[in-house]
Give the backbone structure.
Amino acid sequence: MRAFWDARQLAHAPALELHNGAFVPFGEAPVRAEAILAALGPVEAAADHGEAPLRAVHSSGYLAFLRAAHADWRAAGREGDASGYAWPVTRRRPLALDRIDARLGAYSFDASSPIAAGTWEAAYWSAQSALSALGAVLGGARAAFALCRPPGHHAGRDYLGGYCYLNSAAIAAEAGVAAGRRRIAILDVDYHHGNGTQDIFYARGDVLFVSLHADPVLDYPFFWGHADERGEGEGEGATLNLPLPRGADLKAYLPALDIALGRIAAFAPDLLVLSYGADTFAGDPISYFRLETADYAIVARRIASLGVPSVIVMEGGYAVDALGANAASFLEGFG
Ligand SMILES: [Zn+2]
């Protein structure tokens, strides 16, 4: 399978994140991408598709903020990585965004996603990798893989969070629409709900969003991903959330996957964008499903049996020692 990547995606390297009340080494580290690269065969350089596909998904205000945030942070006399500390939970009036701290709060929903010097560049090229994989599929490939890092599925139209800054899966899906694909399905199999992707397409009937993830009653991102979130307006019924309990192994996972695939087949998409997270792995340090390395080939084979041209976008996965083998197992199973 063709795979796409750009070394500038390593430029994003925050030092610390706030986790369970303590500042700990940033978990979504460049070594994740290096582990996957080491396990794959040859990888192609992503092509630059420019900023227009990003603007089709994210607001211009958000993109301007994200591009400038770290420089603005330094200009305010700060050291290290930029992170917010106040969030506008109630928006009774237009937001005052003069201070970098106000902008950080307005354009994020958590404190786990600092902005470092290389964040914009890395997120930009992560999105370009997804667009390059889309290009391969539009050119006739049955499937292509984008080694996206940083991941994207928690990022919404105008917010970052959950290690995510630009929503590469959504950017690829929207670019698929721009290229003439009429019905696009997004299947998100990361451990965590893809709240950003859901938000972006929540009122859209031409983009189906289906997600298998940990029940948000107990797991991040808590405020999205519940089974009763089904879309709105023209998108009513075009969101399907399948939350699973902690401890789910392959036996518990496959029946939910089959429900997801049945819904996708009924939608009859002409393009599938797959948000693949390996944090469903039994050994993942921040997650609680129990999939094994060999299980990813089984899961991938079932998804591939849809027979829909597929753009596979890397999302999470934090058991670095097993990450390469897990991604390789998934891609080999996909065929
Ligand atoms: Zn995740």
Observations:
- The chain has a mean pLDDT of 97.
- The beta strands are 2-5, 16-19, 22-25, 44-45, 143-146, 184-188, 207-214, 239-244, 271-276, 310-314.
